[in-house]
Each structure stands twice: as structure tokens, then as C-alpha cells.
Design a protein that fits this description.
alpha+beta; six-stranded mixed sheet; three-stranded antiparallel sheet; 11 strands; globular
């Protein structure tokens, strides 16, 4: 008997070239539709993390006020527009470390040594500002600067990256200065606003230039939640829920990092004495002693005035996210110019606006379309002007 032949299976035709191209095109279209959604979801997560960090700082300030019976000193006590600006030794970020679960870092700083003991060459005292080298300190200032080479533990602590102080939406990651490695800060507590709010004045919506603390400038200044007095939230008579405490000011960095930030031309505490960390510590004029405007331990970084792009040659109107396009700023107001883009002014890399925290700890999102003068009234803690909606 003959054995049955093996079963012959019919061959399947393969995909034609046209069919493969159609499938590839469909997959490409689906990926193209999916990627923006994925990117949007990631940015939403980053924005939410940024808001949580502002919440932590807001609660940290409230807990500080509750424990100390006063608000933390603003590191920048005023804004004279030059080297006569008065500072404290330590930043607000440093003072609130124990209240954001960073007590070990705080304990590495010297916050108590009297100025004449810490810096014997200091002059002043009593009710008069201290002068240390070319830097001006408030009479109540105490301690040693974070970048004083004689205070190594504070220097080491200041080089720690504190995630609470870094917005994840900022490009280039958490490193702000790969040379000196001081930890960065992507936010700003607002000490004051000197935006001109006189309707009909040629300077309306622009900075009122503080030439020597002139009368016209003083008339336009409103103080924020924090200053350098020993008072608590009772000084915020407009209401803590109606006053901005801290807002985004993202990506101020070393000038060697392309397009992002610069050093300040204002003198650091010990810049003239030769005791300050000299690594890449240069001012706009190229001399040693400029403050690092990206470091969370530097009081010139953490607390600033809201003034508008007064240093640029283009529009000088105060605004949120001003000169955000193109990246790096236009030639009239490059980001390496003070008060332009992310350089001492409210700025974020979120779409359409910035995150902020109010004095009562409530976190809000402010659209960049808001009127610049309206922001001034939201900064003012006791200006008596009805709070604008945003």
C-alpha cells in the first residue's frame, strides 16, 4: 500500500511594498499624535511638582513665622539700583531650611556670630548699616556668608542641590554652575515693586528709577510680604491670601552656560576683603566680588524686586515672562542682561504663565497676559489697592 503523501500547505502571500508603506505611514501618524500628548502629560507632571515645591516654601515661611513670632528677613532689604542696596547675610531660603525638612543643612551655616566678630574690618552698627568691604549690610545682620572661605561648613552646605528649590521644567537639569557647584534657585520672594502706577505718566508700567532713593521712586515703592523688620503677618494688611509671597524666576545661571543668566554687579559680603570664594565670582564689570544670582544661599538670588526690563533697550514695560522669545532673548533684552527674561524677574518655562504661592500658602498659576501694574498691587502687602483677579 502506498503511503499518503505529506500534506501540502498552501503558501501565504506576503505584504506588498505598498501595504508595508501604508502600515509604516499609519504607525508614524499614530506616534505623531501620541508624542505631543506624552510631552503634555510630562509637562503637567513637572508643573504640578513645581507647584508642590512652592507650597513647601510657603508653608515653610508660615511655620517659621509661627516658631519665631516674626517673618524671615528678606535677604535683600531694599533696592537702590546699585551697590548701596542693603542685604542680610543669609537668604530666605537658608532661614527656612529647618521648616522644609533640611535642618541638617541649616545647622552647617553660621547665623549667629555678630558682624564685627565675623568681619573685624566692618564699620557701622547700632542703627547704621554695616559696611564690609564694598558690601552694605542691615544693622540686624548676623553670621558668616555662605561663600566665606573661613567658613567651610557653610560653603559645603551651599553647594548642595535642594530639590525644593529647582523647577523640573527648567532646561539643562538642576546644575546651574558646573564650575563652583553652588546649589541653584528657580524662584524669587518679592521684597518690593517700584513699577510706576500713575495713570498718564510717561513711565506708567515701567520701573521708576531709584536714583539715590529719590522721592519719586519712594512714592512708587510698595513692600512685599517680607522685609527686614521683626514683624509677622500682621504687617500684611492687604491680607496674606491676596499678596504674592514667592513666584517663579527660573534658570538664572552662570554666564558660561549659554543664554541663561549672569552674575550681579552688586558686591558680595566679603568680595573686597579677599576672603570670599573666588571661583568664577565675577561681576558684570569683570572684577571679583559680584553676587551669584543663581545660588539659593545668596540673599541677592532669593529675594528681589519686581521692576520690569529696565536694563534692556527695548520695551521697558513690566510683565510676566517678558522677552521669553526667542530663547535667550532678543538683542534688545538678552537674558544675560539684568532684569531681562529669567534674570531677577518673574519667569517660567511653563506654557503661558508662572506658578506662585500667596502669603497664606495657596498656590496659583498666573497667566503671562496679566497687566504688569496689576502684578505690582498683588506684590504690595499694605498698599490698600483692591486685589486684581487672576
Amino acid at each position: 500500500m502506498r503511503q499518503p503523501s505529506a500534506l501540502i500547505r498552501p503558501t501565504r502571500p506576503g505584504f506588498t511594498l505598498v501595504e508595508l508603506l501604508v502600515v509604516i505611514a499609519i504607525i508614524g501618524t499614530l506616534v505623531g499624535l501620541l508624542l505631543p500628548a506624552v510631552q503634555s502629560a510630562r509637562e503637567a507632571a513637572r508643573r504640578n511638582q513645581c507647584q508642590n515645591q512652592l507650597k513647601q516654601m510657603g508653608v515653610g515661611v508660615m511655620n517659621y513665622e509661627s516658631a519665631q513670632k516674626k517673618l524671615p528677613y528678606a535677604g535683600q532689604c531694599d533696592s537702590t539700583g546699585g551697590s548701596t542696596t542693603t542685604y542680610m547675610v543669609h537668604s530666605v531660603a537658608t532661614l527656612i531650611l529647618p521648616f522644609i525638612e533640611q535642618g541638617d543643612l541649616y545647622n552647617q551655616f553660621d547665623t549667629r556670630t555678630p558682624i564685627p566678630t565675623a568681619y573685624p574690618a566692618a564699620t557701622g552698627g547700632g542703627d547704621v548699616n554695616w559696611t564690609v568691604g564694598s558690601a552694605v549690610l542691615h544693622p540686624k545682620a548676623k553670621g558668616k556668608s555662605y561663600d566665606d572661605l573661613s567658613h567651610t561648613s557653610g560653603q559645603r552646605a551651599a553647594k548642595t542641590t535642594v530639590n525644593t528649590f529647582i523647577c523640573p521644567s527648567v532646561p539643562n537639569g538642576p546644575v546651574r554652575d558646573p564650575i563652583s557647584n553652588y546649589g541653584g534657585f528657580d524662584y524669587m520672594f518679592i521684597a518690593l515693586s517700584d513699577v510706576n502706577s500713575i495713570v498718564g505718566d510717561p513711565l506708567y508700567g515701567q520701573r521708576q528709577t531709584p536714583t539715590g532713593n529719590n522721592t519719586a521712586w519712594k512714592a512708587q515703592v510698595v513692600e512685599g510680604c517680607l522685609n527686614c523688620t521683626d514683624k509677622g503677618f500682621e504687617r500684611v494688611t492687604d491680607g496674606s491670601s491676596k499678596t504674592i509671597l514667592c513666584i517663579e524666576d527660573a534658570s538664572r545661571s552662570h554666564p558660561d552656560v549659554p543664554l541663561y543668566g549672569s552674575y550681579s554687579s552688586r558686591d558680595a559680603l566679603v568680595g573686597a576683603s579677599g576672603q570670599a570664594d573666588p571661583v568664577k565670582k565675577t561681576s558684570a564689570s569683570g572684577s571679583l566680588g559680584g553676587r551669584r544670582v543663581f545660588a539659593w544661599a545668596d540673599p541677592d538670588t532669593v529675594t528681589n524686586g519686581y521692576s520690569g526690563p529696565s536694563s534692556g533697550t527695548g520695551s521697558k514695560l513690566a510683565a510676566i515672562n517678558q522677552n521669553s522669545i526667542p530663547v535667550g532673548g532678543p538683542t534688545t533684552c538678552t537674558w544675560q542682561t539684568n532684569n531681562c527674561g529669567p534674570n531677577d524677574e518673574p519667569f517660567a518655562f511653563h506654557q503661558g504663565g508662572v506658578n506662585l504661592v500667596m502669603g497664606d500658602g495657596a498656590v496659583r498659576f498666573m497667566a503671562e497676559t496679566i497687566d504688569g501694574v496689576a502684578v505690582k498691587w498683588l506684590v504690595g502687602a499694605a498698599d490698600g489697592v483692591p486685589t486684581p483677579e487672576f
